[in-house]
Amino acid sequence: xxxxxxxxxxxxxxxxxxxxxxxxxxxxxxxxxxxxxxxxxxxxxxxxxxxxxxxxxxxxxxxxxxxxxxxxxxxxxxxxxxxxxxxxxxxxxxxxxxxxxxxxxxxxxxxxxxxxxxxxxxxxxxxxxxxxxxxxxxxxxxxxxxxxxxxxxxxxxxxxxxxxxxxxxxxxxxxxxxxxxxxxxxxxxxxxxxxxxxxxxxxxxxxxxxxxxxxxxxxxxxxxxxxxxxxxxxxxxxxxxxxxxxxxxxxxxxxxxxxxxxxxxxxxxxxxxxxxxxxxxxxxxxxxxxxxxxxxxxxxxxxxxxxxxxxxxxxxxxxxxxxxxxxxxxxxxxxxxxxxxxxxxxxxxxxxxxxxxxxxxxxxxxxxxxxxxxxxxxxxxxxxxxxxxxxxxxxxxxxxxxxxxxxxxxxxxxxxxxxxxxxxxxxxxxxxxxxxxxxxxxxxxxxxxxxxxxxxxxxxxxxxxxxxxxxxxxxxxxxxxxxxxxxxxxxxxxxxxxxxxxxxxxx
Length: 507
Description:
Radius of gyration: 24 Å
Helix content: over 70%
Strand content: under 5%
Protein name: Multidrug resistance protein B
Distance between the termini: 23 Å
Main location: membrane
Structural class: mainly alpha
Number of strands: 0
Shape: globular
Domain Major facilitator superfamily (MFS) profile: 13-498
GO cellular component, one term: plasma membrane
Membrane topology: Multi-pass membrane protein
């Protein structure tokens, strides 16, 4: 694809690629809300229903690193048009599914098509706009890809509550249709290459990443290493990863080139974006269960909690991309964003059972401000030394890191909540005895004693509730500490050249 004339920005391509990216990022969160309804519709167990999410994520993570390879072979234009069409088609098939097996199969295929959308959208914008305008273009791009996933739960809750779970899939159709129309009309053809297919590398990559993603998604459900399935998957993942690394280092043209990580900025920014994804998406993952199960908020209200986060993220993204990146060191901006992410988690970690809507919403708004400050500056740092011809490959790898970080975060918080609940229940039960003055005072207004059946039941319920609360608060505080721990890594990055603006952001 040829670069545009200096100073020229094609708004149609901006809108087209943003819509393409929104397809993927919106779907990644909107389906979560509908999962219990899908489970009930097909009479599935919780373990079986999680495959609706796992199948999509595993296929997407396996295919995403191949973006550069496939784009060189068939061309960006043809690939993104095929990806949008395939994604929309599989969305329709998911909405029409007649059994658990069919929706899992369609989600698997949907993930394969969706894997290309973010990396391609990023690299198309990177090549399509002059350097001095990239910050503004990426601000608009980031506005879509950052706001969409945080608003996904709200949209999903409304569609599920007032229509049907099937609507969370059909809602993709108008977005896909508009994206296809704009892309077909404005995106120029590009050159292709005769690229040899590295079947061995492809197989090792699929085994290594696919099995790792499976372990992260299913580990907590299957009690980690006590499960033979998890043991086998983990061993396969390690062997696949080691084999893939050896293969890449000894092959002239591997399917995915890991030598990108020899670039200091790219390697460090991958570590930072992984830590950021864990801190951000780990907290987002447990927020609905925290407010619904523990604080008794209805589904719709819990969805509304994401609106302040989305609004703040959008404003922060535009301000950062259009103004701040031209005036401040991106390392400082990203560090401030990570600090706000930590503060947001610490605010959540200080709540109690009486937390009102805005006490829950304000931390989300702070987190949203942090999101905008992290994404665009990180793009400057990570891709500072990556040549234009290799943007597709680098973007694919960067997004795999983000996706794996998100999966690690979701797995970690799930494990921390469950294990913390067990530990806290045991500790509180030891301290709350029939002879405990606090327990006696708690039951006195009810004319009950701790050694009565009704009194013991009330105390047991209170212990369970407080143990769960402590568990959630501990998780939020741990995520805050992790966000703080990643900040020093930013200052080992090389400062960008003067005048450089955003290129390829991580969503």
